[in-house]
Amino acid sequence: MVGMFHPTKYWHRLADGRIQCDLCPRFCRLQEGQRGMCFVRARHENQIVLTTYGRSSGFCIDPIEKKPLYHFLPGTAVLSFGTAGCNLACKFCQNWDMSKSREMDILAQSASPEDIARLAAEQGCPSVAYTYNDPVIFHEYAIDVAQACRAYGIKSVAVTAGYVCEEPRAEFYHYMDAANVDLKAFSERFYRTLTGSHLQPVLETLQYLRHHTSVWLEITTLLIPGHNDSDEELESLTQWVVDQLGPDVPIHFTAFHPDWKMLDTPPTPPATLTRARNIALKNGLKYAYTGNVSDETGASTYCSACGTVLIGRDWYRLTAWNLDERGSCRFCGARCPGVFDKAPGQWGPQRLPIQP
């Protein structure tokens, strides 16, 4: 079904006549005609429906490194798309025109799951990314696209804040091949005051992905000056990742730029990203990266055994490749964790908007 009012299954009726959405931990309780906080899941004819199924805010072919995923098919192109709305309320949102939109007019492009899978195949994209806004809220559409993609041998990538309930989480990631999860901070106060959500469900999503799925996992933390960039918080965050997820999970520390409702907050100094990366490496993480800045050292992948540059990166351009056909270091033979082809992709840094 493409169009308005696609049926969903994660909800239940309450004794007071309202219906509770059980997709994410917001548990929106709706009267007939009301929409949830995400704005795209609504109560219609006594059920919860998805109002954006088959409608996108646009399609673009990106480098996979832009997601960011550094250990998943490096150098390849990924077909990216999103819809509208979001189940978080981040005051620093950098895709606010889509994720905070309550205007369906931005959903100018219609595409069935088969259309998207066929477009990715025609354009030579080995993966499709559910991004720009959080795929949690277009759960049914994303899963149907992922199933259509599998028929073409195309992988699926979720770019998400990880704010989702247990049962839909398990269903969703059954169809995903890789995920980059925003671990926005390591304090409940930050999550509550700056995102309108809670930390614990995100930690549970990370643990689920790492220990109960085969989904390739990377983490991104946007460092916002004065809010989540203290040594103490970075120590706690990176130590938790090592202890709970293991040293092989890549983490990306990216630079904040003033946006949405935090225009008075200064940009992140590059030195802050380097400091965060050094703390992560000191605490035992093998792959820590800096992003949204020009830093070839901080963006490159090094062998955890011999220190050789395995994958050199200058922004989204690969500058070196020292992995063999098995994804191991050419010099010492140590395995680099990730999902790699026999050779790197050649897409480069270009960004190509495209019509379905």
Characterization of this structure:
The protein has 356 residues and is an alpha/beta fold. It has one domain: TIM Barrel, CATH 3.20.20. It is 24% helix and 22% strand. The protein contains nine helices and 20 strands. It has a nine-stranded mixed β-sheet. The chain has a three-stranded antiparallel β-sheet with strand order 1-6-5, with no helix packed on it. Strands 2-3-4 form a three-stranded antiparallel β-sheet, with no helix packed on it. A hairpin with a 6-residue loop joins strand 17 and strand 18. The longest helix has 15 residues.
Descriptors:
single chain, 356 residues, alpha/beta, 9-stranded mixed beta sheet, 3-stranded antiparallel beta sheet, 24% helix
**Helix/sheet category:** alpha/beta
How would you describe the oligomerization state of the chains in this entry?
single chain
- Number of beta-strand segments: 20
Count the DSSP helices: 9
**Terminus-to-terminus distance:** 17 Å
What is the total number of structural domains?
A: 1
Which consecutive residue ranges, at least 5 long each, have pLDDT under 50?
none
Using the coordinates above, name the CATH class. Alpha Beta
For the residues shown, what is the average pLDDT?
A: 94
- How much strand content do the residues show? 15-25%
Placed side by side, the strands forming the largest sheet appear as 16-15-14-13-12-11-9-8-20
CATH fold name, please? TIM Barrel
Major sheet, described briefly? 9 strands, mixed
In the CATH hierarchy, what is the superfamily?
Aldolase class I
Q: Given the C-alpha coordinates, what overall shape results?
A: globular
What is the element string, with H for helices and E for strands? EEEEEEEEEHEHEHEHEHHEHEHEHEEEE
Q: Examine the secondary-structure arrangement and name the CATH architecture.
A: Alpha-Beta Barrel
The rounded Rg comes to 20 Å
How helix-rich are the residues, as a percent range?
A: 10-25%
